[in-house]
Structure formats: C-alpha cells, structure tokens
Amino acid sequence: MLKAKVLLVGPREAGKSVLANFVSESIEGIGSYVPTQGVRILEYEKPNLNGNSKGAACRLELWDCSGDQKFETCWPALMKDSHGVIIIFNPDMPSHLKEIEMWYSCFVQQQPLLDSQCLLVAHHKPGSTEDTENLSLAHPLNKLKLVHSNLEEDPEDVRMEFMKYFRSIINIINENREKEEMSIIS
Ligand SMILES: Nc1nc2c(ncn2[C@@H]2O[C@H](COP(=O)(O)OP(=O)(O)OP(=O)(O)O)[C@@H](O)[C@H]2O)c(=O)[nH]1
Ligand SMILES: [Mg+2]
C-alpha cells in the first residue's frame, strides 16, 4: 500500500492539532488548549485518494508536530522521509507571519522539498477578523499555495482543500516511483 508522510507544523496554538483531528476524522472534538508534546502521529486511510492506480487505498500519516521550538532537536527526525509539509498559522497574529518564514526555511527549503509539496493554511479561529481574508505574504511565502480554513463557517471546504493537497502529494509519490522504475530498466 502506498504510504504518505505529511507534517503539520507552525506556531504554537495555531490550530494544528484541531485541524489534524478534523481531517483525519478523529472523534476528538475541540476542547481547551493542550500543547502537543513533540509530535503526535495520526494514521488515516483513504481508499479514493490515489487517482493513478484505480481505487487503490493509501495510508496517510499525519505528523502533528509541536509548535514549541524547545523540540528543535527532534526536527531532523520529524522531517526524515516526509513527502509533504503543511504550515498552519493564525492570520490574526502578526508575529505568525514572521514565524512561518522560519518554519518554511527549516522544513521545506532545507530538506529540500519542492514548493508544490508545501501547503500554507491560514486557520481562522472563531471571532477572527474578516480583513485577514485577503492577506498578502512576502517572498518566498507568496510562491506557495495558500488556503484559508474556517471550521465554523465552511468545514467542508477545509476538508476539500486538504484532500486536494493529499491527492497532489500522492501524485508526486507515484511520479517519483515511475521515474525510479524507468531508471532501473534504462
Ligand atoms: N472553536 C475553535 N477553537 C479552535 C479552533 N482552532 C483552534 N482552536 C482553539 O485553539 C486551541 C489551540 O489549538 P491546537 O490545535 O491545540 O494548537 P496547536 O497548533 O496544535 O498548538 P501546539 O501543539 O502547541 O503547537 C484549541 O485547543 C482550541 O481551543 C477552531 O477551529 N475552532
Ligand atoms: Mg498541537
């Protein structure tokens, strides 16, 4: 079975664990804030994500990482063999805009992963201000795909955007496999 490892990173309290629970269809609801210690790995099986080999199931590992930089020594272990990185931030927090540059640099540029393997998620918590909807990011973050998530207003849209991204990651894995197969026989 095809397996994809995707990390969720970004500033503390941005909503990584809430979103990880939501997209993996975990039954855990939204409670009071419990900081993630290091990492929490959620497994999620989706039979219809793999567009290439008809109907083949694939297993998605969501690595819900802590946003606390005291776990920095664990980062290389987290990044190892990952296929994608989702950076989640709160667009109402000006400090997050600076902080996500660091997450991008460490988890995407230095690995290195392609920009197409990275997704930026502006996660709106209840009561979030409307004017952050059209937020503009500076280079290099402006090259990345940016989606807005609002679980109270449009949860199905959030699910759809994540599924689209997971499908693109699985396509990249499949393409790399085909290239590897070709390189062996040629
Ligand atoms: N009602 C509601 N609350 C949210 C939402 N997203 C985040 N929160 C609140 O914000 C808190 C922090 O969210 P988490 O997902 O735990 O934050 P995190 O990014 O995992 O933080 P670390 O694990 O410390 O890095 C949650 O416990 C909720 O109380 C949301 O969509 N709706
Ligand atoms: Mg967390």
Topology:
Layout: E1 2-9, H1 16-23, E2 39-46, E3 58-65, H2 75-79, E4 84-89, H3 94-109, E5 118-123, E6 145-149, H4 155-185
Parallel strand pairs: 1-3, 1-4, 4-5, 5-6
Antiparallel strand pairs: 2-3
Family: Belongs to the small GTPase superfamily. Rab family.
Protein name: Intraflagellar transport protein 22 homolog
Keywords: GTP-binding, Nucleotide-binding
Task: Explain how this protein is built.
With 186 residues, the protein is of the alpha/beta class. It has one domain (2-185): P-loop containing nucleotide triphosphate hydrolases (Rossmann fold). 32% of the residues lie in helices and 22% in strands. It has a six-stranded mixed sheet, sandwiched between helices. It is globular. The protein starts with a strand and ends with a helix. The chain binds guanosine-5'-triphosphate and magnesium ion (MG). Residues 12-18, 30-33, 35-36, 66-68, 125-126, 151 line the site of guanosine-5'-triphosphate.
